[in-house]
């Protein structure tokens, strides 16, 4: 019976189990591994999903709790916190305001100190050491006058130049473009009654410090007042008995000073179109005049070889004696110092506190003529950069010479020369000191003693370059090494 049981049930099971045992074993192992991987992957995914779902809300709840804890304050605590914030803002604003006020006070103190020094004539900005000779290619020539230029002025904003000539015309120029913006044509002699403008050589001009009025004087003893913006004729002043050789507006006012070959100084009020007074003192024709902000003016007396300071309010004058030549031109450097040029070729530096020049450079532009008969070049024009240590002079030796005033205006040092062909009859620095304008002609503004045929009548715009601070430091280091 036992064998029958084994034969019926046992062998088929044993046979089926042993049949293809290796392949079935590999198949079962593979299936088992795949099932395990799926379970692991599913478990891993479930763990990630489960963690993210359970941790996300808990983090948000914690953050909300922290925020609630931070702002969980009583009304009194909130008022205290806001009050502290407000007081902190006020403190910051007050500190910032105090810093700004301190900065403004420093600026105001600096300006007041400069004004005091300027009034005393002790203000001297040291700019000469920074000036560099301009490139010849950068010098521009503006042509428009038929005859030699005799005088010029630059507007206070440095945008325009007015020039006048022996052809009796006046031209308004644009500095940047060099264009002629307006021309006041000159008239013929004898047409004074019907011609609006000059009918004789224009010798001098001046513009008010606010740029409103332009004044011009001529050989016909007349002074014309123009509206500078439109070149409209306003008034005509008469009263001088000789050619008008000098004009100057007092800075900050519309008071006009005029000088003449009749040896007198006249004071005018342009706003009121009125004559004020006449001053006498010079023993020869007055050849130049200038003024500053004080109620006074300075004049050059030509062949009487004196420079005079006129105190208008006190009705008095100070007399200063110069060199051997005729003092033909004068310019104020500041309220206490001035520069003059003479026909003996000298350039002199003056102080109102000294009767003699502080410094004189003889034959400042060299000499000309045959051997043994050399004569110095006449100095026909001088200019000064206001309240600085830089001045310039011009002659007919084909150059403009720039000078440096030493500390305390004790001496003059040559800086460099600028090539300009012809008679330099007028020189002016711009208010900013960025350029210099020279009025040039073939002849001297007052006569025809010489003639430079190759010269061109016009204006030379000369840019004034300054070395950069970085270059100064580099040069200083090199010098120190």
* Strand adjacency order, main sheet: 2-31-30-29
Let me know the largest β-sheet. 4 strands, antiparallel
Helix segment count?
4
Q: Residue ranges: pLDDT <50 for 5 or more in a row?
A: 1-28, 42-55, 470-481
Task: Say how many strands there are.
Answer: 32
User: What is the arithmetic mean of pLDDT?
Assistant: 83
**Termini Cα gap:** 127 Å
Summarize the structure.
The protein has 481 residues and is an alpha+beta fold. It is built from four helices and 32 strands. The strands form nine sheets. Strands 2-31-30-29 form a four-stranded antiparallel beta sheet, with no helix packed on it. Strands 3-4-5-6 form a four-stranded antiparallel beta sheet, with no helix packed on it.
Could you walk me through the main structural features you see in this protein, from its secondary elements to its overall organization?
The protein has 481 residues and is an alpha+beta fold. A hairpin with a 4-residue loop joins β9 and β10. The chain has helices spanning 2-18, 21-70, 75-120, 469-480, and strands at 131-132, 140-142, 149-154, 160-165, 170-174, 180-184, 202-207, 213-218, 223-227, 232-237, 244-249, 255-260, 264-269, 274-280, 288-291, 296-300, 306-311, 316-321, 327-332, 337-342, 347-351, 359-361, 367-368, 375-376, 381-384, 390-394, 399-405, 412-419, 423-429, 435-441, 458-463, 465-466. It is built from 4 helices and 32 strands. The strands form 9 sheets. The chain has a 4-stranded antiparallel β-sheet with strand order 2-31-30-29, with no helix packed on it. Mean pLDDT is 83; it is low at 1-28, 42-55 and 470-481. It is globular and about 105 Å long. 26% of the residues lie in helices and 35% in strands. It comes from Salmo trutta. Residues 1-75 are annotated as: Disordered. Pfam families: WD40.
């Amino acid at each position: 019976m036992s064998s029958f049981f084994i034969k019926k049930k046992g062998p088929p099971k044993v046979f089926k189990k042993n049949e293809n045992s290796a392949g079935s074993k590999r198949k079962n192992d593979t299936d088992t591994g795949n099932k395990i991987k799926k379970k692991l992957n599913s478990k891993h995914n479930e763990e990630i999903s489960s963690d993210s779902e359970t941790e996300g809300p808990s983090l948000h709840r914690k953050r909300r709790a922290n925020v609630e804890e931070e702002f969980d304050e009583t009304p009194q605590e909130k008022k205290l916190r806001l009050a502290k914030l407000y007081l902190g803002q006020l403190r910051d604003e007050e500190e910032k305001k105090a810093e700004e006020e301190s900065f403004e006070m420093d600026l105001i103190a600096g300006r007041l100190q400069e004004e005091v020094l300027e009034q005393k004539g002790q203000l001297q900005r040291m700019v000469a050491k920074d000036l560099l000779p301009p490139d010849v290619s950068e010098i521009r020539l503006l042509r428009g006058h038929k005859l030699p230029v005799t005088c010029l002025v630059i507007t206070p904003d440095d945008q325009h130049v007015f020039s006048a000539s022996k052809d009796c015309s006046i031209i308004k120029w644009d500095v940047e473009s060099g264009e002629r913006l307006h021309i006041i044509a000159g008239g013929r002699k004898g047409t004074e009654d019907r011609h609006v403008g000059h009918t004789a050589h224009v010798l001098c001009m001046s513009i008010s410090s606010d740029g409103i009025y332009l004044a011009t004087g001529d050989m016909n003893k007349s002074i014309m007042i123009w509206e500078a913006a439109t070149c409209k004729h306003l008034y005509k002043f008469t009263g001088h008995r000789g050619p008008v050789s000098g004009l100057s507006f007092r800075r900050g006012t519309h008071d006009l000073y005029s000088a003449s070959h009749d040896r007198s100084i006249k004071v005018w009020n342009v706003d009121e179109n009125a004559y004020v007074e006449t001053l006498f003192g010079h023993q020869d024709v007055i050849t130049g005049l200038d003024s500053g902000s004080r109620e006074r003016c300075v004049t050059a007396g030509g062949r009487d070889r004196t420079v005079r300071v006129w105190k208008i309010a006190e009705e008095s004058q100070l007399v200063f004696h110069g060199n051997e030549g005729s003092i033909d031109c004068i310019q104020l450097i500041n309220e206490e110092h001035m520069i003059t040029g003479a026909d003996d070729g000298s350039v002199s530096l003056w102080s109102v506190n000294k009767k003699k020049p502080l410094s004189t450079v003889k034959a400042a532009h060299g000499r000309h003529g045959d051997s043994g008969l050399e004569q110095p070049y006449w100095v026909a024009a001088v200019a000064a950069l206001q309240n600085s240590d830089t001045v310039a002079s011009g002659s007919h030796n084909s150059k403009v010479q720039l000078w440096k005033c030493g500390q305390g205006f004790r001496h003059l040092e040559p800086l460099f020369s600028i090539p300009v062909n012809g008679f330099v009859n007028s020189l002016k620095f711009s208010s900013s000191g960025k350029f210099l304008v020279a009025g040039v002609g073939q002849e001297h503004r007052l006569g025809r003693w010489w003639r430079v045929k190759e010269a061109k009548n016009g204006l030379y715009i000369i840019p004034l370059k300054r070395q950069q601070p970085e270059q100064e430091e580099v040069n200083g280091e090199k010098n120190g090494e």
